[in-house]
Write a structure and sequence with these properties.
elongated; single chain; 16 helices
Amino acid sequence: STYDTIQDTKTVQGIFFFFSSRRRHTRCSGVSWARRCVQETGNELLFLDSPTCDIIKVPHLAHYLGNTQFPNIISPLLGDSKFRSVYGGEGFLPEETFLDARSFIINPAVFGPHQTIDKSQKYLRAGPRRNNFFRPSEVTAAIVTCGALCPGLNSVIRELVLALTYNYRIKKIYGIQYGFKGFYTYGWLELNPENTSGIQQRGGTILGTSTCGFDAEKIVNSLVEKNVNQVYVIGGNGSHKAIYDLFLLIKERKLPITIAGIPKSIDNDIPILDRSFGFQTAIQEAQRAIKSADVESNCLEYGIGLVKLIGRTSGHIALYASLASRDVNICLIPEFQYELYGPGGLCEFVYERLKLRRHCVIVVSEGVGISLKGSNLRKLGKDESGNPILPDVGLYLSKELVRYCKAKGIDASLKYIDPTDMIKTVPPNSSDSFICSMIAQNAIHGSFAGFTCFTTANVNNRGCFIPVDEFCLKRKSKKVELNDRGWQRLLATTGQPSFTNDETVLLNKVNPENLVD
C-alpha cells in the first residue's frame, strides 16, 4: 500500500465534532489513522490513549488488566443490511452505523466574548462499538437502583433487560434489591423480558431502593461469587461516588468487571448533563399543584396559594415549573438569599400585592428555608445517607405571611400544597421515557466496549461517556446562577423583586463570564 501524509482539519457537524489536530498522521488507501486503529486492530484505545487525542479519557479494563491485545470481539449488532433481518434485534446494524473513534461532544457549545471553544471539554460520544471487549456468552450483568425515588427507574430497568437480552444475547441478568446493601443482604432476582413486562408504565422501582448500606468489600466479594462482570448502577451524585469507590477496589484487585452509572436526579442538579431523567416529568406534575394553588387563591378574598416543590440545594424544578405555568407571582429557590421583613422583604411584597390584586401564587423549593434572612429555621441534622434534614419552609411561610398580613389589617386565606411524594412516584412522561431508553442502551454499549467507571448522559442533546470522577469529584452540583438566562426569564415573567433591602450585595455577585442559557 502507498502511504501519504495528511493534516487533519476540524469538521463541525452541528454540535458534534470529529477529532482534529495540527499534527501529521499517515493513512493507507484513504483510511485515516484513527479509523485504522479501530478497523484493523479493533482497539479504540490506540487512538484515545494517544498523546494527540484531547478527548477526556474514560477508564478502560485494558488499562489495569494488562491486556497486551484487545480481544477484538465483533459486536452481535453488526449486520450486512440496513434493515433488521434477524429476529430479536441482533445483527441489524450496518458497518457505518458504529461509532468512529474520533467522535466527541463538546461542552459548553455556546461561545461568546467570555466563552471560547478552546475552553470547552471534549467527551467521548456514546453509542455501539463494532469491536467489543466482552464475548456475550461470558457476560453476567447486575442492575441496582439507589437513592430516592424518581420517575423513570422502571423504564431504565426494562430497557437494560431488553437490550442485554435481545441485542447482546445475555442469558443471565440479576436485579439487586433495595440498593447497595442488597448485594450482600438479600437474594438476587433473575430478570428477563417476561418478568419485567409493562414495568415502564409504573412508578417507583421493582427492585426497591435505599440510601444506605454501601460496603465496597462485601459488594465486590458478592460480584466475584456470582461471576458478575457488568454492573449497572442507577443513582445520583452519592451513588456515583460509590461507583468510584467500587472501581478503585476492582482496579486494585485487577478484576474484569465494568461498572456503569446511569445518572438519576429528579431535581436536575448533576453537573455537565443537559438534564436527568425524571426532571421533565417533575415539571409536568408540578403544574397540577400550581394550577390548584392558582384556583384556590383566585376563589378567596385575599387568597394565597403556596406550593413547595423538590429542591434541597438547587431550584431547577421550581424555576422551570414556574416558567411553564405562567400563573406564578413569586418563585423562591435556595441558590439566593431573601429577606422576610423590611420594605424590600417578602412579607411586605405579598401584603402590597394582596391589596392590589387580592391573590398571590407562590412557589418555593424545599431548601429555601435556610436562605430566608430573619427566619429562625435551621437544619435538623442529617439523615442516614448524609443529606441534611430540612425544616418545612412551607409551614413556616404559611404562618408568617398570614400573621404579617393580619397585623396590617388584611385577613389573608392561605392554602399550602406539598406534592413532593406524588411527583416522585409517578411514571415518566414520553420525553423522560425516551431519555431512559437511550442512556440505558448507551451504558450497555460502553460496558461491552470495556469502558468502566463512567456514566452516560446527554450533553448538548447527544449521548456521551463521562468519567465518574469528572462530575462527582471534580465538580460541584449544578445550581441556578444569578445571571442564568432561565432565572432572568423567570424575573421577566413574574416581575418579582430581589426581596432584599440592599441590592448591592446581589450586584456584586454578577459575573459576565458565567452567563449561561
